[in-house]
Amino acid sequence: MKNRKIVVTGGKGGTGKSTIAILIAFKALNQGKKVLLVDLDIECPNDYLILGINKLTNPSSNTYCYYPEIDPKKCKKCGLCISSCSSNALFKSKDSIPKLHKTLCSSCGVCWEICPHNAIKKVKEKNGEIYINKLSDNFTLATGRIIPGIRETSPVVTQTKKYLESYYKNFDLVIFDTAAGTHCNVIKALEGNQRAIAVTEPTPLGKHDLNIILKVLKVLNIPSHIVINQFDIGDINLIKEISKNNHSPIIGELPYNKKLAKIYSNGRFFENKNLSKLLNLNLVI
Amino acid sequence: MNKRITIASGKGGVGKSMISSMISILFSKDNNVVAIDCDVDAPNLALWLGIDTSNKNLADKTKFISTTKKPQIDKSKCNNCGKCVQKCNFDALEKGKSYPKLISYRCEGCQLCKIVCPNNAIKMVSVKNCLLSIFQTDYNFSVIQGQIQPGEAESGEAVTEIRKYANSISRKDSIFIQDAAAGIGCPVIASIVNSNYVIIVAEPSKSSFSDMNRIIRVINQFEIPYGIVINKYGLNNNISNEIIKQSKNNFLGKVSYDQEIIKSIVNMTPIFETNLKAKKEIKDIFKKVNDLIFNDK
User: How far apart are CA B235 and CA B258, in angstroms?
Assistant: First the structure.
């Protein structure tokens, strides 16, 4: 079947989302499939580093957001934009037009819609970049990345996914790798997928955060599966309990492996595709 | 004077909560401490302090708070003109048969829909989207956490709200220890704002080093002093050395890689109650931070 999609997430940070996403990609590559890996951890994308690319250069495209720009000639300093801004991004400043604190602005558009004097226009500004790296004939990595200091990061996820839509048909498998957490940019990355893998670790922390992300996946109506990373150095029963309560099967296990950790830290995954044998995965990809 | 110390990292799983828990305990010896778990997506700080947060009976107090408002459409006034659907910058409203449908998890509560509605058919109503809990630790201080309800957004606003709550139970001389979420976006920015100092935790991997430099760029925008801790020291000495070299005077210290740390969390034993090397190493880091915080003018 052409063009299958899967999203790898987890809730907790550092459980091995990127590692598992890459090992699944390797498994598919070893089966002769064409794979697109999309790194949607747009605040801190790391897949490129793990795969041995030292620096992202020459973006294929940019992502944008809008900020308000206030015309000092038209502004009557009525303060309506300030009081209507739910992000508190506009400030009153003495005897002058409202000041914008960009890091707080969510680009919602309330100020330019509400201004009774038509003094605010929206100005387009770059907030992120999309990179495409062809690692081999069958393996392509796409990365969305925000410019540090941007508050509203989820539009970068949405725009990265949209930009890549025309690429999907060229691949047998598309794997999305999300950020940690459950907030808006994770939700945007999860949306539209029919299968999700939640990566966890067998600790009370892993258990706690896994439970949350499985609940989020339920709200989004995406069937979830669990992969346990470092399954041999904790208490696997913690995860079994959550798996049972959420009707989410455990479909994979990766043991702790010092060599793997070292290869990860040095970004040497790509030349070690056999590592995928370490991942015991019960999933048709 | 209040002091506010935030622990951040960019990359997740590098040890923020573990170090936050130790720093909180160590500060509490001579100070009034309020520990705040600013990771409202996946709060883990209380677990590192030995508290089983799944047992809500252990909480001193829990309450649902509202950090956002969502549109409610008055069907008798709505003529399904579609203006709200078209204007919403978050695609949170979908055209329906007789009135628009709200996709709740996309809504950011900005009220643009209400403003643009020509029929005055939309009102904004508060949604209780975050469960705030306060736990008393065994160390004479409280830890406050928020838990965003599954599928709700607005993590940044939730951080701001739990910080406000922490202020309400603090003293004039309290030290706030804030454990931030992974990433460098809105909830992390909401944590860093108005901090006196940021402890950045990194592990010796290319990924973490890169994320460390991304969080530094954010912290610099707020002109807040910071220091760097390497956790899991020993995993990769080359990268550790690079981090130390780059950090110069901002380097605070290291915490050695030790699988026993994982075992202690599995047993819900705070690092402070162990005799692990990490305990002593974090004490040394604490001393430096303590000096920096109190000698600062």
Answer: 10
